[in-house]
């Protein structure tokens, strides 16, 4: 289900980017920081998804090599 996770992570990152932008325009430093935090969280989740996908690929490869 990595595709769904990828979409969720991209949406969360986009929302964080928008929040940061609104914070910039309005001069709201708290909102700007919150947007940046949301983006970092989304990046971390995406990194976890990438590791999980790589591990799945290795496991599948090993199973196929045994046949």
Your description of this structure?
This protein is mostly helical and 67 residues long. Helix content is 93%, strand content 0%. The protein is built from two helices and no strands. Helix 1 packs antiparallel against helix 2. It starts with a helix and ends with a helix. The model has no long low-confidence stretch (mean pLDDT 92).
Helical content stands at over 70%
Biggest sheet details: none
Integer-rounded radius of gyration: 17 Å
Low-pLDDT segments, ≥5 res: none
Average of the residue pLDDT scores: 92
- The total count of strands amounts to 0
Query: Termini distance?
Result: 25 Å
User: What pattern of helices and strands is seen along the backbone?
Assistant: HH
Write the layout of secondary structure elements.
Elements: H1 2-26, H2 29-65
Which labels suit this protein?
2 helices, single chain, mainly alpha
Question: TL;DR?
Answer:
By secondary structure, the chain is mainly α. The protein has helices at 2-26, 29-65. Helix 1 (2-26) runs antiparallel to helix 2.
